[in-house]
Each structure stands twice: as C-alpha cells, then as structure tokens.
Design brief:
Helix content of chain A: 25-40%
Strand order of the largest sheet of chain A: 2-1-6-5-4-3
CATH class of chain A: Alpha Beta
Largest sheet of chain A: 6 strands, mixed
InterPro entries (chains A, B, C): NTF2-like_dom_sf (IPR032710), SnoaL-like (IPR037401)
Pfam family, one (chains A, B, C): SnoaL_4
Number of strands of chain A: 6
Oligomer: homotrimer
Order of helices and strands of chain A: HHEEHEEEE
Number of helices of chain A: 3
Strand content of chain A: 35-45%
Protein name (chains A, B, C): Actinorhodin biosynthesis protein ActVIA
C-alpha cells in the first residue's frame, strides 16, 4: 500500500515537473529551465554536440541553440508522453519517455511536427522538488 | 505529506476531467461538454470572437462553430498535454496546458495537425466533481 | 476519501502500464508486449482483421504486421492520451483513450503522423500488475 501510494505520488510529481519545465523552455526562459536541473546537472539534447553542464552551461547552450530563430519567429512546444518512471535504490528516479517538438510560425495554423525523440532522464528530489540530474535526448531519425 | 497527497489527487482528477471533457467535445456531444463547465462558466476558444457564457451559450457556440463541418465529415481529436496545475487560496485551480487539434477525414490516414494552442483554465469542485469556471484558448499561430 | 485515493492510484497505474507497454511495442519486443495482456487476452488493432488471442497469438500477429517494415526501417512511436478510466463492479477497468502513431524514417526529421485512433481496453489486475484483457482499436479515418 505504501509502495503503491509512493509510485502514485511520484508519477504525478514527475508529470508536474515536466509540465512546468517545458513551459519554461517553450517560453524561452532558459535560465529558469536550467534551474530545473541540479547544480551539476547534465543536458545533452543535440546529436553530436557535447553535453552542457550546470545552470550557466545549460542556459548558454539553449541561448546558442535558439539563435537559429532570431530572424524566424516561432512558437515551439515540447510534448512529453508515455513516461516510464523507475525509482532506484539510491532514491534517484530513472525516467524514459517520448518527446515531440511542434513548431508554429505566425499565421500558419499547422505546426511543423518533429523531431520525435526518446528521452532518458535521471531525476533527484531537492528540498522536496524534483530536479533533473541529467537528460539525454535521442532523435528517432538518427536511429 | 497531506499536501503531497492533495497535489497527487488533484493531478489525477484534472487529467480525468479533461479526458472525459474532450471525448464529449470530439463526440459532438456539445450540451454534455457545456455541462462540464459551471453554470456561469466562460468559454473563449476562437480568436477574435467574444466568449460564450453558461451551458446554453457554450452549446450554441459549439454548434455554430461546427457548422463548418456539415458538408465535410471529420473526426476531430483534441489532445491536451503538459498540464500545470496550481491550487489557489480560494480553492479554485489554475491550470495551463498545451492543446493540439487533430482532424481526420474519411479514408485519409494522416490527420491534419493543428492548431497548436496554449490553454488557461480555472477549475472548481462542485459536489466533488471538477468543472471549468473558465477556459481561454490562445492559438500559437497568432503569437 | 478512500474512493478518491483509489481513483488516483488507478490513474497513475494505468498511465505507467501504458508507458511501459508502448515502449515494448515500439522497441519491437513483441513477446514482451504480448505478456502485458492476460493469458487469454484479446487484441484487435487492424480494421477488418480478426482479433489475435493469447500471448502466442498476439506475438504472431505483431510479427506479421511488422513484416511491412522489413525493407523499410522505421522507428514507430505510439502515443496514448486523454485516458478515461472507469472501474467496474467486477474489479476490471474500462479505459477509453486516443492513440496516435508517429513513424520516423532514418534521416527524416518530420515523422509521418497517423493514424489517429480511439482505443477501448479492458484491464485487469494480476498479482498487483495491470494487464490487458482486451484491446479494440478504432481508426478515425474509417469512421
């Protein structure tokens, strides 16, 4: 019973963490997105690029990545789904889930769909709040 | 602990409310969809149109909106995701989430995708059931 | 209170069951996918085809279905969403939800989107784990 309750609570907490995290990302609030990682958090989202580390490193990487949209205004939306959550012995959580990026341009009702990705996170509780210790994004078109 | 339990319960309740609500909408059961709002509920879904109010007003607005499909049979599906839920001091819930409309036509396997939207709801419990006090839909292509 | 807790626990359990189930399916681990059904489970996913029954039957049907990709490498992703869960008197669960298939080909960033489906499952607990007693997939383009 306790373990059922725990899995239930974890599952809602993970979903809420991701909802808030992607809304920061898609709102281009990169420093706040970076703050959803632990201080030594690792973020690897672009194939062939080295991972970014720490709040400043993640913020810098997202700023760099999003320069491509400087003269191409878009509203991006990251959708996460089919989230598997597995608690580890050490209290960390392994999650594996699907991610899809939708990119809408002004005046165009149909978003560009893709890439479709598989994401592997390690999450940690800090002062009762979930944080990403790491994120590895695998792009399906690179299988 | 109580607050964790509460957030967990709220999160599942909100997801279930939305699942049932959109299945009514996509089943063209507009009066039943309207009944998922409070009696004085406000529904604003079309950019530039005034909000509809109350069960009759919401039903009428959806009937009007869907006339465009009278000679164009479609199966629409509303997908909600990345749901942020924030309880307010007054017992109401603020939610912010992504919505995507998928429109399938007979014999065509690939749905039309879009618009992609950001939705802000205010939810209230009535006799233990969640209801929408309001819904504001923002279309990403109108950013 | 107990019933609220139960619905909450059920909702998380169903989401987790589906997350793990589709990751097996999309990983082409068909025997393991089949094992997420009860021993006498029924699986009906292709319009006009008879349902498959039991672990061996479901594994064989998925192997047959996926032969079409033998010379066309793809990464498929099944997305489930808007999940309605209704416990029955007999302890089984009726679920109704939306499903969308995304198919990504090597080097192509935009997945093929579709079909969009409505799925009706009956789920059972076996030794504390959810299993599908049945699954009926309805394709929206066949409405």
């Amino acid at each position: 019973m306790t373990s059922t309750t725990t899995v239930t609570e974890l599952y809602a907490a993970v979903q809420l963490h991701y909802a808030r995290q992607v809304q920061l990302l898609d709102g281009c609030r990169f420093a706040e997105y970076a703050a959803t990682f632990t201080a030594d958090g690792e973020f690897q989202h672009t194939p062939g690029q080295p991972a970014a580390h720490g709040h400043d490193g993640i913020t810098a990487e997202l700023t760099r990545f999003n320069k491509r949209f400087d003269n191409d205004p878009v509203q991006r939306r990251h959708w996460f789904n089919m989230i598997d959550v597995r608690p580890r012995e050490d209290g960390l959580l392994d999650t594996t889930f699907y991610a899809l990026v939708l990119t809408t341009r002004p005046g165009v009702k149909e978003p560009v769909v893709g890439p479709s990705c598989l994401v592997r996170d390690v999450l940690a509780f800090e002062d009762g709040e979930l944080r990403n210790r790491s994120r590895q994004v695998h792009h399906d078109q690179m299988s």
